[in-house]
Amino acid sequence: MLNKTLFLFSVMIFPAISIAQRVNDIIIDPKTNGKDFNLLLKDIESKNDVNFIYNEEDMQGISAYLIQNKTRLLNYIEDYLIEFNVVSLNDKTVVLMKKDFIPDLGKKPDNYWITQGKPGQMVTINGTIYDKSTGETVVGAQILLPATGRGAITDINGQFSIKTEAKFQELTINFIGFDKKTLLLGFDPEVAEKKLQSNLYPESQQLDVVTVTAKRLDENVRSQLTGVERMGIESIKKLPTFLGEIDPIKSMTTLPGVSTAGELSSGFNVRGGETGQNLILQDNGTIYNPSHLFGFFSAFNPDLVDNVTLYKGGGPASYGSRVASVLDISLRNGDVGRYKISGGLGLVSSRLTAEGPIKKGRSSFIIGGRISYADWLLNATKNIELTQSSAKFHDITAKIFQKINSDNFISFSVYNSHDDFKFAGDSIFSWNTLNGSFLWDHTFNDKLNSSLSIANSNYSSNLDNIDEITGFTYYNEINSLRLKYLMNFDKSEKYVFSGGIEAEGLIIEPGKLTPTKDDSNISASNMQNQKGIEAAAFVQADIDISSKLSAMVGIRLSNFFRLGGEEILKYDFNNIEQRYPVVTDTINYKNGDLINHYIGFEPRLSFRYLISEEVSLKASYFRTYQYLHLISNTTSATPQDYYVVSGPYLKPARGDQFSLGLFKNFSKNKWETSVEGFYKITDQAVDYIDGADITLNPRLEAGLVQGHAKAYGIEFLLKKKTGIFNGWIAYTFARSLRQFSQNTGSRVSINDGAYYPATYDQPHILSLVTNFELGPKTTFSANFNYKTGRPITIPINKFSYGPYLSILNYSERNEYRIPDYHRLDLSLTVKDNPSKNGRYSGEWVFSIYNVYGRKNAYSITFNKYGKAKKLSILGSTFPSITYNFNF
C-alpha cells in the first residue's frame, strides 16, 4: 500500500548528517554507508524543517552505499536510486516516487497536491473546479479516484466532496469540452489542511472521449460478481469493422462465453443460451431486435453509447426476466458546456450527432441519426436476385438531461428505427422499433440514493408480398411498459444494501395475415393477442466478511400473470391426429381475467476470496425465470419470428447456473487474466415437434414441447489494458445440449430421448484482438475469430423409386456440423491534425473485413435428391473507408 511516512530518528546516531533548512542543501558523507534509507530520511526530517513524501514499502531493503565523498542528498538519490523520480515541490518538500507509478505525471511538480492526513486514515477531500478561460465554476465535472473507484460530481457551485484513504493515489477531473486533468494526491499529518482548487482548460485538441465510471482498476479481481464483461465505447471503436460500422454487439462476441452463429445472425448466444434468452436494455428500455438488416449492422448508435455491461449469469438481484444474460447499454448525456457536432461518412452508411447545453451547466440535449445506402453493394453482385433487391435502414436516438439540483437528475431518451429489405421485387421485409425512457436519480444523503425508470418498448415486423394474385401483409408486434424503482444504502465500507421493485406489462400480437386485395386467393388469418404482467421484488446485500472474503447475497421474487381475454383450447394429448392432439373444449376468458399465475424464487449468491492483492477466487450460483419465449426456427430475425408468454401449456423456463473462477492481475493491473468455469441447467426449454408449423398456427402450443437443456464450459481471458500494444486473447470451450423425453417432462421424445447439440452449440471459440499504436495519430488493429461449425441434420442415405421419386433418410438431430468458421479483420485509424483553435478534428478508418476471403458457411441445405448446397453470406474480402469528424 502506497503511503507517505514521516519518522523521527536521532541525529546522534548519524552525526555525519549536516543540518540544513533547504532540501537541496542537505549533505551526506561516507559515514552513512550501510544505513537503512528509511531511517536515514527520517533522521533528516527530524533535524531539519523538511519533508520527504514517499512510500515506505518502496524503500524497504534499500541502504546507502558507494558514498565516497561528501555529496548532496538529492544528487545521490538521482544517481543511485534510479528507479525513483525526485520531485521538489518547494525548498522544503520532496516527493520520491517510483518511476513505474504514473511515469509521465510523476516527474512534474505541478501535478502534485499535498494536504493534511495521517497515512492509512480516512480523510475528506473538498474542492472547487473552475473554467480557466472564464473563471466560472464548472458544474457537473466528474471527479474519480481510479485506485478505489470512488467518484463525485461537482454541484451547482462547482464544489465536490469525496472520502478516501490517506495514501498516494491518482485523482482525475473530467468534463466534456475540457482537457482531462490528473493530480497525484499526497498526505502529511503536519501540513495545513487545504481545499483543492483546480482549473480546467478548454480542449486544445480533440481528445479521445473519456468515460468516467466508478470502476476500480482491479475490479475484475475484487468485485464479488462472476461472469461480468464491460467494454467502454473507445475500446469498441478500436475494433475492425464491417463496412465501417461500429458494432457494440459484435464487440462483445470477442469476449469469452459470447458468440454468434455467423454473418446474417441477429443477436448473440451467451454460455449456451438462445438468442431470445438475453435481456437487452438501452436506458432500461427493452430492445427486442439488436440489429439492422439481418445482423449486418448494430441497432445501437455508437456515438451516443456511454458504456456496455454484459452479465453472463443472473447478475445482481435487480435484473431478471431472462435465463441467459443481461446486456445493459447506457446512453450518454449531451455536453452541458458547449455545442458539438460529430459524425461519420462511410461506403454504405453515415451518421450525424449534435449535442449541447439547453441551459449551460444544468441541462443538455443530444440527438443522433444514421442512414444506410447499401443498394449499390447488392447491385454489384453477380446474383440476379440480389441485383433486383434493396436493403436500407435508418434510426434516430435522442436524449435530454436535466439537473434539477445537486440531489436530483432526470433524463428522457427516445429511440426509433426502421428497416426495409425488398427481395427480388415481390417481398418486402420490414422491422420497426420505438422506445421511450424516463430516468430519475435522487440522492437522499451521502449514504442513501435511489433511481426510478419508466420505459415503453414497441417492436413490430412486417412481410409484404406484392404479388397481384397472392399478395398479403403479415404483421406481428410486441409492446411492453417497464417500471423499476431501486434504492441503494451504503451503510459503511463493508456493508452495502439495495432493494426495489420492478413490473412489466406485455401486449403481444403474435401474427396477423391480411390479403392486399379483396379478390386475393389468400385468406385472412390471425393468432389471438396475448397479455401478461411480470412483477418482482428484490433485495441484495454486498458484504465484506473479512479483509479477504466478501459476498453478494440477493433474492428476487418474481410473479407472472397471464391475462385474458383469450380463448384457451383444451387438448386430449392421448389422441393425436396429423401430429397434433385433438381439441376437446374451449374456455373463454374475458379481458383482465386471470388465466395463469406463476411464481419464481430466484436466489443469487456470489463469493470472492482474495488470495492476494492481485489474485482472487470467485464462486457463484444464480437462478432466474423467463416468462417470455421467442418462437423462431432461424438464426436471424425474420418477420415470422414472434414472442409468446407462458400459459397453461407453455411453462416458464428456469435457469440454474453455477460458476467458479480464478482471477489474477499483473504489473499493477496492466494485465488481466481469468479462468472461469460454468455449469447451467435450463428446465422447460422449448423446441418443436417434427413438422410443426409455427406461423399463424392457432394451436401453436400443441406443436411445442418443453424439456431439459444443459450447458457447461470453461472460459480463458488474457488482456493487456494499456500501452502502445494492447488487446486480449479469449478462448472458450463449451457445450450446449438438449434433451426432450418423458423423463424430462416432454410429451414427445426428440432424438429418441437422447441428448443432442443445440443449433448454436460451438465447442471451441477463439478470439484475438490487438491494437498497436504506430504513433500518436495512427493505430493499427487486428481481430481474428475462430469457432467450431454449427450442428446440422443431414440425409445419410436415400431410397429411390425410378428417376422421379427419392425418399431421404436423415441422421439423428444435429449429429453433423457445417465447416468451422474463421475470419481475420484489419483496420488502420489515422487522425487528422486538429484545427488551429482545436475545435475541429477528424480521422480516417481503413478496414478490411474477412482479409483472406474465407467462404464461411452460413448454412447447408439439401434438395429432394440429397444434393448439398452451401450458403456463404460474406464469401469474399470487404474493404471499407470511413471518415469520422468532430467539431
UniProtKB/TrEMBL annotation:
Stretch forming the signal peptide: 1-20
Family annotation (InterPro entries): Beta-barrel_TonB_sf, CarboxyPept-like_regulatory, Plug_dom, Plug_dom_sf, TonB-dep_rcpt-like
Keyword Protein transport on entry: no
Location in or out of the cell: Cell outer membrane
Membrane topology: Multi-pass membrane protein
Top-level taxon: Bacteria
GO molecular function annotations of the record: carboxypeptidase activity; siderophore uptake transmembrane transporter activity
Keywords: Carboxypeptidase, Cell outer membrane, Hydrolase, Membrane, Protease, Signal, Transmembrane, Transmembrane beta strand, Transport
Pfam families the record matches: CarbopepD_reg_2, Plug
GO biological process annotation, one example: siderophore transmembrane transport
Cellular component terms (Gene Ontology): cell outer membrane
PANTHER family: HEMOGLOBIN AND HEMOGLOBIN-HAPTOGLOBIN-BINDING PROTEIN 1-RELATED, TONB-DEPENDENT OUTER MEMBRANE RECEPTOR
Protein name: Carboxypeptidase-like regulatory domain-containing protein
Naturally occurring in which organism (per UniProt): Marivirga atlantica
